[in-house]
Amino acid sequence: MIWLIGNKGMLGTELSLALDQRGLAHTGTDREVDITDPAALHRFVEQQAKSTPLSWIINCAAYTAVDKAEDDRDTCRRLNVDGPGNIACAAGKIGARVLHISTDYVFNGKGTRPYREDDPTDPIGMYGLSKRDGEAAVFAHSNAAYIIRSAWMYGRYGNNFVSTMLRLMAGRDTVRVVNNQRGSPTWANDLANIAADLILRSDRGDLPYGIYHYTNGGDITWFEFAKEIYVQGRALGLLLRDCAVIPCTSAEYPAKVARPAYSVLDKSKIQRALGMPLSPWDTSLRKYLETCVR
Ligand SMILES: NC(=O)c1ccc[n+]([C@@H]2O[C@H](COP(=O)([O-])OP(=O)(O)OC[C@H]3O[C@@H](n4cnc5c(N)ncnc54)[C@H](OP(=O)(O)O)[C@@H]3O)[C@@H](O)[C@H]2O)c1
Predict the structure, then answer these.
(1) Distance of alpha carbon 22 from alpha carbon 14, whole angstroms
(2) pTM, entire model
(3) Neighbours of 98 (CB within 10 A)
(4) What is the pLDDT of residues 226-240, one digit of tens each?
(5) CA of 92 relative to ligand 1 center, distance in Å
(6) Ligand 1 pocket, CB under 6 A
(7) Where are the domains of the chain?
(8) In CATH, what class is 2-160+185-218+263-280?
């Protein structure tokens, strides 16, 4: 039995569906079992042991508000460092495997080629720092853990860049979008399917524990992403009026905390491990937008 934590979030909801599709038995919780409370996690594990013991714990719960994290450091650390540590500890006690989700924000963004799993981390803000320390907390408490680092995620079940762009483009004549940050978008549905496949592969006994990078294929700037959202949104009838997409720099669009300038992840390790091609970012965007038409 799989315990999916954070099952009401953007990724957690998709993962719940991906597990269903593969017939993988799972039970899900969100805020009602607080990951910062080790006793609450323990109670859930004990309760579950009376019916079907847990063989996996997947953690999709996190503090994801990148700017807010700078003023809310304690809450951010409790959720992103203590939480994963508590989960890994609970899993270790019952011999369950762990799948935890992390981020490109563990890197400083000064790289010039896609980041590999073993490249040195050097986060530039509180969110990235907490996620980096959360990775360490997982491995400190579990010797049977996988971490998937992903980036630029969007999907049906949460606020994200694509939903924001569609909303702004529907009501404005122009939108200005940063053109000096490069990365790779990830459709939450694709990441959920990869995570579910990773579990199946691990259950077959031939997948080494450790960190894996996954995003959609290709790399672009936020401006290029916005332009494609506009083009595809117009073609699918999701956007009914003209809107000019204008490039700007991050200096012209100040945020509380700097974003990595370059956060492309090298996905060759997970591709080799799972033996599948990466879905190109624009193909996945189209598939996602088609689900918005229906
Ligand atoms: N979004 C991205 O672009 C992105 C990129 C790379 C990696 N990631 C990582 O991917 C993972 C999933 O992200 P997401 O965007 O799907 O997150 P999300 O939509 O914010 O989902 C997180 C879920 O955790 C719940 N939660 C909050 N505090 C909790 C607690 N104390 N105990 C239990 N559950 C709690 C949240 O509830 P509330 O909604 O009520 O707070 C929410 O349902 C995270 O690890 C994130 O760091 C995200």
Answers:
(1) 13
(2) 0.97
(3) 25
(4) 999 999 999 999 999
(5) 22
(6) 6, 8-12, 30-31, 34-36, 60-62, 64, 79, 101, 103, 131, 150-153, 158
(7) 2-160+185-218+263-280
(8) alpha beta
